[in-house]
């Protein structure tokens, strides 16, 4: 188990470099399509880098390896970000990058299990991932398989009642093999999440639902890594959640400062500009 | 301020609807379907699942606070470590079943048909059907089998699930169908929605056809006849068979084709039987006239150029009344008396 993972992680590349590569690939995919959920991808890149190059066990050459940690993308529209990290991890061939969102591509705009290696579930109908994760965590326990289930969801999904059914269920069944990752970018289709259906105080909610809860800056890699380590080390028989406060469009300041919307508008000539700006911030 | 359409709607109920005969008490949800003259089998689903699970350790059972009302308690009592009580949470019930299926198990998830079809639909569609996962959704109180009114009467469940790709749909008639179905749907590599009769379930089909065995995807002739062909599913096959016996006394010869698998529909057998000519074809279903067996058969006949005289017996496109089932079955014309009466009227 260990050896296979080391072959993925065994390079000298830092997590900051991995996160930068993820951002770059996402921008390249956005450029192909001329659109995409690039704000979310740039914002979640650090969490994904820590997930795939610090936390998760997997074998790049065998995405269905029984011993892998399961990573569920409940937020199907974040697929552009997951494709980027799957390429970075060697699970998805990088040559396919230019097919993103095109006819016949294995990388549709919204992630689906039947299209893409490494995409565990069909997300996109929001509020589904955590419930499926509960079932997979129960299934792994039945099989005495020590793998973990990670469910990446958004703050918007906190408005779905099914999320809280699943939260109660995860605690009821004492699923200490379940780690929920909440991307709190405070942005959804119609505006700020906290102004749509406010989920605050969020840590108190998760704790009241019986979860071990942490809230960290999702764009601070050291904090992200420490949160993953702590979540995995909890000894109490309860599920864990990490709320990551992230910044939409992180790493491309002129987009960060734009009045952010769920589907950030990037003009045709701005993709190359964004890539050039990102290049300036390339970690050494 | 009250909208005109909402004002004092209850006033119309001051006028009694039942002008003759006795008034009966509302049929509770635990009541078994009355079936005079038939032997009954206790909890056929629960016992069939236990038998299957003893041979196949991939079988697990889940429910949303309705194990006793879906006969899953039989399984839970025998195999408590393979039973998951999910609480009153249908969305996570089916999502969890999807997750267990992803990990290689064959989950049987039970609730009432109204809750699966209405509340959990998006989760069944995306977490289960779109990925073609082998989750078996088994639901009690199909159609008009409770007197509690629309909150518990799943009169449109088949229409809802027929629209879902990959979904196999079963509307069993009796204990024989249910016991026969369980191992067959477990073997089917995909999602299944099945209606369920629970408690003391009548054994109907083998009395009329001793060698009857449920076959997934197959319609079967239970009774031959030269004047009328009833194409039916669910407990309406029982009604059809009983009505056929009554009509025989009036020299009306009625055939009954039982179609327990609603999707995929056995169009070959339906076309062969309906195409024989000379018979009035009547579909009979415990479901709204919209989107169920009747419309599926009509489409099959029309698109294949088979055009017999055709009638449908189904529930109306309405929210149905509360009350006692015998009263309601007469009111909506799915009782034996009414089925026989209507068929006679069409000849």
TrEMBL record, chain A:
<feature type="domain" description="Transketolase N-terminal">
    <location>
        <begin position="31"/>
        <end position="271"/>
    </location>
</feature>
<dbReference type="InterPro" id="IPR029061">
    <property type="entry name" value="THDP-binding"/>
</dbReference>
<keyword id="KW-0786">Thiamine pyrophosphate</keyword>
<protein>
    <submittedName>
        <fullName>Transketolase</fullName>
    </submittedName>
</protein>
<dbReference type="InterPro" id="IPR005474">
    <property type="entry name" value="Transketolase_N"/>
</dbReference>
<comment type="similarity">
    <text>Belongs to the transketolase family.</text>
</comment>
<dbReference type="Pfam" id="PF00456">
    <property type="entry name" value="Transketolase_N"/>
</dbReference>
């Amino acid at each position: 188990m260990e050896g296979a993972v080391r072959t993925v992680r065994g390079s000298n590349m830092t997590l900051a470099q991995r996160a930068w590569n993820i951002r770059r690939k996402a921008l390249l995919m956005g450029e192909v399509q001329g659109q995409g959920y690039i704000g979310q991808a740039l914002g979640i890149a650090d969490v994904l880098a820590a997930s795939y190059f610090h936390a998760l066990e997997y074998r790049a050459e065998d995405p269905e390896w029984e011993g892998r940690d399961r990573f569920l993308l409940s937020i199907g529209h974040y697929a552009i970000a997951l494709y980027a990290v799957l390429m970075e991890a060697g699970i998805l061939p990088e040559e396919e990058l230019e097919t993103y969102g095109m006819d016949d591509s294995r990388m549709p705009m919204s992630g689906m299990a039947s299209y893409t290696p490494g995409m565990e579930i069909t997300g996109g109908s929001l509020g589904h991932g955590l419930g499926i994760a509960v079932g997979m965590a129960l299934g792994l326990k039945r099989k005495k398989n020590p793998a973990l289930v990670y469910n990446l969801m958004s703050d918007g999904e906190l408005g779905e009642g099914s999320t809280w059914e699943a939260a109660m269920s995860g605690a009821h069944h004492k699923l200490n093999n379940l780690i929920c990752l909440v991307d709190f970018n405070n942005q959804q289709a119609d505006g700020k999440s906290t102004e749509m259906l406010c989920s605050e105080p969020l840590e108190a909610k998760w704790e009241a639902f019986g979860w071990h809860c942490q809230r960290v800056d999702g764009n601070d890699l050291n904090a992200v890594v420490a949160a993953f380590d702590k979540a995995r080390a909890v000894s109490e028989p309860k599920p864990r959640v990490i709320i990551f406060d992230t910044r939409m469009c992180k790493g491309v300041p002129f987009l960060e400062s734009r009045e952010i919307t769920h589907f950030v508008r990037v003009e045709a000539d701005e993709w190359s500009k964004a890539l050039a700006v990102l290049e300036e911030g390339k970690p050494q | 301020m009250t909208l005109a359409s909402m004002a004092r709607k209850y006033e119309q109920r001051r006028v009694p609807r039942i002008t003759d005969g006795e008034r009966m008490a509302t049929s509770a949800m635990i009541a078994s379907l009355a079936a005079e003259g038939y032997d009954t089998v206790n909890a056929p689903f629960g016992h069939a699942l236990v038998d299957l699970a003893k041979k196949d350790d991939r079988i697990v059972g889940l429910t949303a606070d309705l194990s006793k009302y879906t006969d899953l308690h039989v399984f839970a009592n025998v195999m408590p470590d393979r039973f998951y009580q999910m609480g009153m949470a249908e969305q996570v019930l089916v999502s969890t079943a999807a997750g267990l299926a992803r990990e290689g198990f064959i989950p049987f998830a039970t609730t009432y048909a109204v809750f699966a079809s209405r509340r959990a639909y998006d989760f069944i569609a995306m977490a289960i059907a779109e990925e073609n996962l082998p989750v078996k959704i088994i639901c009690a109180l199909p159609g008009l089998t409770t007197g509690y009114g629309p909150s518990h009467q799943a009169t449109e469940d088949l229409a809802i699930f027929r629209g879902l790709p990959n979904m196999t749909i079963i509307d069993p008639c009796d204990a024989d169908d249910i016991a026969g179905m369980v191992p067959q749907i477990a073997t089917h590599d995909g999602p299944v929605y099945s209606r369920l009769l629970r408690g003391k379930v009548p054994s109907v089909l083998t009395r009329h056809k001793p060698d009857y065995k449920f076959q997934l995807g197959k319609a079967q002739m239970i009774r031959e006849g030269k004047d009328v062909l009833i194409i039916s599913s669910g407990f309406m096959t029982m009604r059809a068979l009983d009505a056929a016996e009554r009509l025989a006394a009036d020299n009306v010869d009625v055939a009954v084709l039982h179609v327990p698998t609603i999707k995929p529909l056995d169009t070959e057998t339906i076309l062969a039987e309906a195409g024989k000519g000379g018979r009035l074809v009547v579909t009979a279903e415990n479901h709204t006239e919209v989107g169920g067996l009747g419309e599926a058969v009509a489409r099959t006949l029309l698109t294949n150029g088979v055009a017999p005289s055709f009638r449908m017996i189904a529930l109306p496109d309405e929210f149905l009344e509360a009350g006692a089932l015998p009263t309601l079955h007469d009111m909506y014309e799915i009782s034996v008396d009414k089925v026989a009466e209507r068929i006679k009227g069409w000849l």
